[in-house]
Amino acid sequence: TTKFTSALDIPVEFVEKNVKLRGKVQHVTEKGLEVEHVPISVPFLTALQRKWQPKSLLLVRLAGVELSPAALLWLQEELKPSQLIWFQLLGRQDVALECLVLVNKGRFLSVCLNEEILRQGLGRTARIEGLRHDSRLYWKLHKRLLRAELKAAKKNKGIWKEESSPGKVMDRVSSSKLMQTLKQFANWLRSY
Fold it and tell me: If you ran DSSP here, which 8-state letter would residue 116 be given?
């Protein structure tokens, strides 16, 4: 029921347990999404909290995604002012939260913006900051993000449109730092 007004207010346990929080998008900036946290409402208590708590925004970044300039425009079109989103905490860096961001699309369907940006070819996969790189969750999420990026590359969408030949795309993907890290991890697993 507590309304978080700063990334530093969020308890470490919430981040460690990857808790999902709810919020309203206020602005889309180069730094990330500025989101007003919307706590679980308890009728009488919520009315009191609104009066006394300051209007402060959390900075939410899309974890595991390096955004292109076109991604910012797409996010500004996709996310309406005061739109309700869910953000799953994966890490915290100073005043920013690294999160998976989910948007409801209809009654039973929600879309992960991190994956959707990659699927549209509007960004590249990056390291997921805040999660331990040897954790199961890290590799599960990383695999999902890489699959989404690969779909865009195969369909020549967004930033992949420039790279017309499949050989160029595969060369670029295989020579990326992320792919090198994955290969090292796979070799390390094979050695045990």
Answer: H
